[in-house]
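YM 10:42: PpiC domain-containing protein sequence, as discussed on the call
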Amino acid sequence: MMVRNIKLLIPGLLAVLCLMLAPSGVLAQEVLNQIVAVVGDDVITTFDLNKLQANLEKSLGPPANETEAEMRKKQIAKLSLERLIEDKIFGQEVKRLGIRVSDQDVERYIDRLKKTNGITDDMFAAQLSRRGITPEEYKDGIKKDMLKARLIRRQVKNQVVISDNQVDDHIRKNKGQFKQLDQVRIQALFLKIPEKADENARRLIKRKAVDLRQQAEAKGNLTELAKEYSQGPGGVQGGELGPLSVVDLLPAMRQAVAELKKGEMSPVIEVPGSYVFLKLLDRSGETGLPDSAIREQIREKLERQALEQKFKEWMTKLREKTYVKILDKN
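YM 10:58: structure's back
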């Protein structure tokens, strides 16, 4: 009987001994890296959550006071968890469908991006460093975007058909915008609006954009601010875009450009997914695009908008079918 009791005690003693000999940092890491949510057959940990929260905090800049800091902390925590849940669901569906993007695909995309925009490796690395993003994180983001594009093509592309009547209706509603001068060069600074951002989070991001616009106006220089803060196209080039056809611009940006003289800066405006302000650098030439070209560009824009909406609806339904359990951290 005594031998049996000793045998039963041995595993427990070994476990205690392992805990005593384990480095304190390892134990602390295991305690800190707890599971905060279960999504299908995957989990989200505090490490994942804290990392995304830190990135979002950095993108917003310092809070104005302690009250705002506390409020923003709660909003970002909620937003970060929602984004991670969506990422997990998205990743599981991509895996289930066998959709793949290779490392070579990502590298080729980045190489084309550098070549098209005249970016050297050093310039590219410096831009990532200013944004606090590692090359691996950037590549992960590109890979996710490419997977999303392939998933959209596979799941919802055939559900979207833009008719001639829809194009005609868009032209009628925006008739004045097609009388613009067709070629412009602009500078733009974008701040992204996270998909699940509530009104308070959106307000904070817009206030950051307004503050950056005031700085640009006071300094008379948007270039450095765009390089450091812009989260949209052209950031590496100090926000410079163009020459662009006016019809290629988002409607809100097109309207803003129409009201600007050369050298003037627009107020902060909202476009899908971002707040942006822009400066008109140059404009030239009356529109000479044939009607068919304009209509094709309109059709493509309407299709992109419809695809994005269909994708959101599809993701909402997918989440409803996926097991999601948020664990109480208190």
